[in-house]
Write a structure and sequence with these properties.
Layout: E1 5-11, H1 23-37, H2 42-48, E2 51-55, H3 59-62, H4 67-74, E3 82-85, H5 91-104, E4 110-118, H6 124-132, H7 147-162, H8 166-180, H9 194-199, E5 202-204, E6 207-208, E7 217-225, H10 227-235, E8 245-254, E9 264-265, H11 267-273, H12 277-281, H13 283-295, E10 299-300, H14 306-319, H15 324-327, E11 330-332, H16 338-347, H17 356-362, H18 389-393, H19 397-413, H20 416-420, E12 432-439, E13 444-452
Parallel strand pairs: 2-3, 2-4, 11-12
Antiparallel strand pairs: 1-7, 4-7, 5-6, 8-13, 9-10, 12-13
């Protein structure tokens, strides 16, 4: 397996509707930016790139089957190899990892991963229906299975089990929106208070409109290369920014589509199968978990994401991460709902199972130097969604995981000020970060770890 480097990326502005361009042209915006960021023009890069992976969630939004091959042609990539991946909200994360595999395996030396979604072609209710088709259409969908309802049910159970509060969820929304205020690519650049979040229209109790991401049009692209690919690019005139950013770990997990089919695992099996390295090493955490299980808690139930824990553990092992809160400098996390960000804190090992709510309000996941209008008891330790996340940036599904990859590369290259025109969101001395993509109610999850060399 060869080292794989993430060299550059590009993102189109995420907006409610891009009426001025086709989906092919929106992808080209991101693609051209990624090429120009390494100092090449379109013809020169076309001679060097070996192929691509395309990411888009639903044929329904474009009303076009094989839309990926239309983008492939528009980008001048035919007749080079390419394929499309799809995995709900995790589609972009899967695409990133499939491009990594193409390079790591030796099949390609330079591969571009691109993703898009143009969700504005339908009314919001119809878009939500299309998204709901990623649930079980024989079992869940017929009884009103829209995702806001699913996530409301999951967090309601989390609240009952662990005492999670609506104010803790609102703190996530405040954090992500205020981060996005400094991100020119974000769809919603707003400053909200806790009260603003709770006063916004209720969608599915306890989730308000400001607890939930929005539909978007947008695209993103990342260029990955091997060492041989680096040499070829530089011979073509590319200016590769150093130190390099390497993808040092990837992980994936899955779970049953129907939440009712997910098991309720006891303490011993949880510790054996799912506990993180630091959980197994801590007698205090083991005693804490014993008390939870004696009280009746089980894992994952409907309030945790077993696929996320599986993906995180796999990526961490590969990257040599044993304590993510201490060893990761930031995480771009799939926050389609404020509640899912809180649940994912636990499964990615940022805090103990059941402590996601207090962690959300602690300040540890916030950026330093930003006035959030909150009284945070602790200092930032591992910023989560410094970009603003899905809630504020938007969620053009096929592009989202790749957007995270682009922002992670820029963070690790120390180039946020160059791309944003503002250094506020630059994580100081960022050395290692992670990106996390999540589908359905946790049916597909990917985690990738990226690291700056030197």
């Amino acid at each position: 397996m060869r080292p794989v480097y993430a060299l550059s990326g590009g993102v189109s502005k995420f907006v409610k509707a891009r009426k001025d361009k086709t989906f092919q042209a929106i992808v080209k915006e991101a693609y051209d930016y990624a090429i120009q960021d390494i100092g090449l023009d379109f013809p020169a890069f076309s001679q060097v790139v070996d192929g691509s992976v395309a990411s888009y969630f639903s044929d329904h939004f474009t009303r076009q089957l094989m839309a990926g091959i239309m983008v492939q042609d528009y980008l001048g990539l035919v007749p080079k190899p390419g394929h499309r991946v799809e995995g709900g909200g995790a589609t972009g994360g899967i695409c990133f990892q499939e491009a990594w595999k193409s390079v790591a395996s030796g099949h390609m030396d330079v591969c571009v991963a691109y993703g898009f979604e143009t969700m504005s072609h339908v009314e919001t209710w119809k878009g939500n229906e299309f998204i709901a088709l990623a649930s079980d259409v024989s079992f869940d969908y017929p009884v009103g299975g829209f995702y806001s309802g699913y996530y409301a049910m999951m967090v309601t159970r989390h609240m009952k089990e662990f005492g999670t509060t609506v104010e803790q969820m609102a703190a996530v929304s405040v954090k992500n929106h205020r981060n996005a205020y400094h991100n020119p690519y974000a769809q919603k650049r707003q400053r909200y208070s806790l009260q603003d979040v709770r006063d916004s229209p209720m969608v599915a109790w306890p989730l308000t409109r400001l607890d939930i991401c929005v539909m978007s049009d947008g695209a993103a692209a990342v260029i990955l290369a091997s060492e041989d690919g680096l040499q070829r690019l530089e011979q073509a005139g590319a200016h590769i920014r150093r130190p390099l950013v390497q993808v040092t770990g990837i992980g994936r997990g899955t779970d049953a589509m129907r939440m009712a089919d997910r098991p309720h695992i006891g303490y011993d099996d949880f510790m054996r199968l799912y506990a993180t390295e630091q959980e197994r090493a801590s007698t205090e955490t083991q005693a804490y978990y014993r008390r939870l299980w004696d009280h009746g808690t089980r894992y994952p139930g409907v309030h945790s994401f077993r696929a996320g824990r599986t993906a995180g553990n796999m990526a961490y092992r590969m990257a040599g991460v044993s304590d993510p809160l201490k060893q990761l400098d930031f995480i771009e996390l799939h926050d389609a709902y404020t509640s899912s960000e809180i649940q994912t804190y636990e499964d990615l090992g940022l805090c103990r199972y059941g402590e996601g709510g207090p962690f959300a309000a602690s300040g540890k996941a916030f950026m330093p130097g930003i006035d959030y209008g909150l009284e945070l008891p602790e200092t930032p330790e591992c910023p989560v969604n410094p970009s603003g996340g899905l809630i504020a940036c938007g969620h053009p599904v096929g592009a989202t995981g790749l957007m995270q990859g682009v922002f992670a590369v820029w963070q690790l290259q120390g180039s946020i000020a160059q791309h944003f025109g503002d250094s506020t969101l630059q994580v100081r001395d960022a050395h290692r970060g992670a990106i996390h993509s999540h589908a359905g109610t946790g049916t597909y999850v990917t985690v990738s770890v990226l690291e700056r060399l030197g």
